Amino acid sequence: MQSQNARQDIILSALFSVAVLTMPIWLQPIGAAYPDLMQKFAIFGLFAIGFNILFGFTGYLSFGHAAFLGVGSYTAVWSFKLLTMNVIPAVIFGTLMAGIFAALIGFISLRRSGIYFSILTLAFAQMSYNLAYSVLTPITNGETGLQLRQQDPRVIDQALGVVPEAGLPVTNLFGFEMQGYTGFYFCAILLIIGFIIALRIARSPFGMMLSAIKSNQNRLNYIGVNTRPYTLAAFVISGMYAGLAGSLMAVTDPLAGAERMQWTASGEVVLMTILGGAGTLLGPVLGAAIIKYFENIFSSFHEAALLSAFDFLPDWLAEPVASVLGLFVGEGWHLTLGAVFMLIVIFMPGGVIEGLNKLVSLVRRRPDDTAPAAVQQPHSAE
Amino acid sequence: MVKFPNGFSRRTVLKGGAALTGAAMAPTVFVRHAFGAEFRNNPGSNATVPFGFNVPQTGAYADEGADELRAYQLAVKHINGEGDGGMLNTMTPKALKGNGILGKKVTYVTGDTQTKSDAARASARRMIEKDGVIMYSGGSSSGVAIAQQSLAQEMGIVFMCGLTHSNDTTGKDKRRYGFRHFFNAYMSGAALGPVLEKEMGADRRAYHLTADYTWGWTQEESIKNTTEGLGWETVAAVKTPLGAGDFSQYITPVLNSGADVLILNHYGKDMVNSLTQAVQFGLRDKQANGKNFEIVVPLFSRLMAQGAGENIKGILGSTNWNWSLQDAGSQAFVKSFGQEYGFPPSQAAHTCYVQALLYANACETAGTFYPPEVIKALEGFEFDGMGNGKTLYRAEDHQCFKDVLVVRGNQNPTSQFDLLEVVQEVPRSQVEYDPSIFGGELGPYEA
Amino acid sequence: MDAILLQILNGLDKGGAYALIALGLTLIFGTLGVVNFAHGALFMLGAFCAVSLQQLLTLSKRIKDESVTFFDAYKEVPYLKIWFGDFGDTIIDYSVPLAIILAIPVMLLIGLAMERGLIRFFYKRSHAEQILVTFGLAIVLQEIIKAIFGANPIPQPPPDVVAGSADIGLLFGLGQGVVYPWWRLVYLAFSLVVIGLVFAFLQFTTFGMVVRAGMQDRETVGLLGINIERRFTIVFGIAAVVAGLAGVMYTPILPPDYHMGMDFLVLSFVVVVVGGMGSLPGAVTAGFLLGILQSFASMTEVKAIIPGIDQIIIYLVAVVILLVRPRGLLGRKGVMES
Predict the structure, then answer these.
(1) C-alpha angle with apex C277: C275 to C279, nearest 5 degrees?
(2) For chain A, how big is the Rg over CA atoms in Å?
(3) Residues of C with CB below 8 A from A267's CB?
(4) Residue A6 covered by a domain
(5) Which of B389, C55, C270, C324 has the highest count of CB atoms within 10 angstroms of its CB?
């Protein structure tokens, strides 16, 4: 049993890696195979995987995870400004700094559970956002966002005698510039590593403890288990994932803005995770990709493009079709997103992954798979 | 889900191919240290050349963004020689021939900035990486404009700013690849100064409410410099959080502060709310220091005036352009826009329309799309017939210098669009300044 | 002294809006166990009831402005004014208060439709899924409003009689010249009345008694053979009406736009939680408390000591209260804690 599970995990990881690395090919037909969007898929996939460790595995719904994303970004940009354009220190410091913040905020917030915990995390994140936007401008550059400058010290680069080019320096990994497809592959490899770590966590005794906390924390407390170190560890790990995602945002696009920390950004990762399937391993990555796809592709259609897309239809039909569809794309992409949220949650309880699982078992028609208990999520108790 | 056959182009397929073959090295060859005339998104022998229009389509500035998009669509038509030609008939000097740019028809793609730097940059990168745009433009916020023009520098694609009013855009954050036609906070101050003095005298006590982010600060600073130069005293300058909604807690202290002028350094929804509420608190009817209490809104727009309704009446401010102007360029533009859409363009639409035309014209002049040459054609370009009198794109900071309008909320509008009356067209010479006062560094021509 | 009085009034006013929204949220949560992220959208829909009525009343005869040649510009004269003269003007002037009459049935219907059509299928689902579906609904609702009314705020002036400021100084013995907008006083009184009505309804009617019992122990009430479901549906309708009325009356203070619901959503959740989940008095108390604290934190004197405090005060207070009182001000044990 154990070894079979291990084999399944290896197959899963391998399939995941292949799927991620071949994104430039199979995303082609849906128009998503360009570096920036694929970078976003990988980065927000990481963010959601990390969030899922806290929410999906442990059952704690944080509404302030964007704060760690922001901290990761700011730290990474400062690393570019002060130390070096090499991305390794930026990623390490970004992740660590987010971990420290997560430890502080987690230590306080985890004193409460349920919605009280959610509101505490929300409050910390909103305070970070509001301060970063205004009072902390010397550190964050406020509304404009923290940017690189030609005159930045970059002490390590300077000590190594890197000749500053004309223009802004570019983030690099020992000479490989972290833009375009190289940037994507860097993010993709980290996404795969992050996925495998999450998988290992889920299978480890620590992961078992987290899911025990999710199903009934009181019982654990009664039998004398102190759950706090476990929840705090889960919180810090997921905060570090967010920090890593944030520093990757800075790696691929060296600018850090405060709005990354706003509650809408925190809400977005919650939606990604639930949409894909909280508690599942692949779900959050899928949810992240769906939302980012809508944001970037659906918003880019405009009526003229729709009209030309339907020019095979007769004129009297093409115009009404284009104008009706026009409500759902371009400036109406939010409407589509909202409707998709509703449809998925109504018709696919447990998220896209659960929906797919059900579909698969329907097709297979294996009688033992029809037992709903097998796929049902443990509901949080009232 | 519906499939959109045009969502992917030949270019995406090509790029995907490049990714597969020489995955790691491809971008370095394409992007940087390009040889000769090889540059990013070179249209080469294509028959068309795409522009990217990146405007807010969701969020508080969605209506302004929609108006910008209308203007861009009109500009593309005119550049391609369709429609009545609009300002192409009045622009001088002009290289465009009404057959596209350098014989290529202009196409366009659109995107949503959401008035967020991250979203705007993601959308711009899509346009650059996927749609292969040669230039992108648009926006309704300074933070977003600055974020986009630094991206422009990194990517080597020119960005023509939309509506952005902060001094920083062409000051400390200026970029070689970013250009701004819109006026800025300094010019608002310089233009308003003499009018304020004439209308309210030299002995006034001003109270500032300022949106607590960089645009608000630069405007507060510019207006303060002007008014203090007139001899006004600044009683207080209070920062308010962005999107505060209810501003009552900031307005009540104004009542008994001894101030007799309230200056609202707010834009968009903040301005609509703070002005509406200030009027409800009776500030318009108030007497202080033996004078009528006055409210000033340094940056006005017609869309905001609509949102504030009656409260805008009689209030002074400045604006980049207004549809009621009678010069030939403005008339030509209002005519094409009005006939196309049935209502007049906003100042945001005007600046975006002009920006698209100016870029196209610069390419035609330079005889190439190669960005450094296009940039050189724009730098120092002096033109007329585009609605603001004789205008100069200053080479030192990529800021346009032109006449600025001081306007007042119309007391007796003759129609639903007649919300602002022009008090004075302040000549360009009065709002010029030395580019060195704001610092900043344009950066190199070769990105 | 008068500065403090005015800030208290500002706070009560803001608090009134928070309390009304939070009251509905708590009602829904306490009875149905549903986390309703679409509640801000209900507030927004209420505000747009006022907008719709105003646009209906000001349907206008258009007189073309001949000086504008390139497009059609009109001076608009409302038909009501043409038909009824000054009386027509008066009706238009009172469009916001009149909108209350429109908003009550409309919001009730919207509330009932929402509960029957969507929410009831989510009673047994996880809170996460409730959040996702109601958030999706909120987006859909606000996008529909945006498609109809645009994104720009739409001014809603209060009636002329209460458009100006009241001299309240004499009332409080502070001498003349201390003024406060009439409409804000009206709003404060209105919110107190609505809160009072909701409490009276729950306290003094049989219906209310059953609902309160249901909030305490739903199963037992069900076992007693009482159709609790149907009553809860009506409770949802009432919560929608309360949010909608708050929206209608707030429009003169805050010109409504399609996004206003989202702007209030997070704040009202903070209010509910600070008050204590499932506690109606808690929600009201927290609403007023946070409103007042927010006002005081914005005073220049306070900001001089702690810069930026007005940016974070609500959240800071929320953190402090939740750390001192684990279940908010008046929350019950075991509600939404796991």
Answers:
(1) 65
(2) 22
(3) 135
(4) yes
(5) C270
Q: Inspect the interface and report whether the beta carbons of A123 and C124 lie closer than 8 Å.
A: no
More confident residue, A164 or A183: A183
For residue B277 the two structure tokens come to 């509420």
Report domain extents, chain B: 5-182+324-402, 186-319
- Which residues span the domain enclosing A74? 2-262
Closest approach of A88 to chain C, Cα-based (Å) = 34
Q: How far is A143 from chain B (nearest CA, A)?
A: 5
According to DSSP, the β-strands at B158-161 and B205-211 are unpaired
- Kindly state whether residue A180 falls inside one of the protein's structural domains: yes
The residues, any chain, with a CB within 8 Å of residue C320's CB and separated by 6 or more, are none
pTM: 0.90
Is the model's pLDDT at B348 over the cut of 60? yes
**Are the beta carbons of A274 and C125 separated by less than 8 Å?**
no
For B434-447, give the DSSP string: -GGGG------S--
Q: Do C151 and B60 touch (CB under 8 A)?
A: yes
Q: Do C140 and A270 touch (CB under 8 A)?
A: no
B306: chain C residues, CB-CB within 8 Å: 152, 155
Complex confidence, ipTM: 0.91
**C277 chain-A contacts, CB cut-off 8 A:** 115-116
CB contact under 8 A, C132 and A271: yes
Helix (H, G, I), strand (E, B) or coil at B320: coil
Q: How far is residue B350's CA from residue B406's CA, in Å, rounded to a whole number? A: 17
pLDDT tens digit sequence for A100-151 = 999 999 999 999 988 889 999 999 999 999 999 888 989 998 888 898 888 8
Does the beta-carbon distance from B129 to A34 stay under 8 Å? yes
Q: How many CA atoms lie within 13 A of A57 on its CB side?
A: 29
pLDDT by 10s per residue, chain C, length 338: 788 889 999 999 999 999 999 999 999 988 888 889 999 999 999 999 999 999 999 998 888 888 888 888 888 888 888 898 889 889 999 999 999 999 999 999 999 999 999 999 998 888 888 988 999 999 999 999 999 999 999 999 999 998 888 888 777 777 777 889 999 999 999 999 999 999 999 999 998 888 888 877 777 877 887 777 888 899 999 999 999 999 999 999 999 999 999 889 888 899 999 998 888 999 999 999 999 999 999 888 888 888 888 889 999 999 999 999 988 898 877 666 65
- Strands B287-288, B291-292: pairing is antiparallel
Class of domain B186-319: alpha beta
- What is the number of structural domains in chain A? 1
Strand boundaries in chain C, DSSP class E: 60-64, 74-78, 165-167, 179-181
CB within 8 Å of chain A, chain C residues 303-322: 307-308, 311-312, 315-316, 318-319, 322
Max intra-chain CA distance, chain B: 79
Determine contact: C175 vs chain B, CB below 8 A. Answer: no
Alpha-carbon dihedral C38, C41, C46, C47, rounded to 10 degrees: 160
Q: Is A286 domain-assigned? A: no
pLDDT for res A2? 57
Between positions 34 and 63 of C, the ones with CB within 8 A of A are 35
Evaluate whether C308 touches A105 at the Cβ level (below 8 Å).
no
Give the largest CA-CA distance in chain A.
74
Calculate ∠ Cα A331-B115-B209, nearest 5°: 130
Whether residue B299 contacts residue B163, with contact meaning beta carbons closer than 8 Å, is answered with: no
Q: Which CATH architecture has domain B5-182+324-402?
A: 3-Layer(aba) Sandwich (3.40)
Nearest-CB residue to C75 (from B59, B285, B415): B415
In order, the DSSP letters of A185-231 are HHHHHHHHHHHHHHHHHHHSHHHHHHHHHHHHHHHHHHTT---HHHH
Residues of chain C positioned with their CB less than 8 A from the CB of A266? none
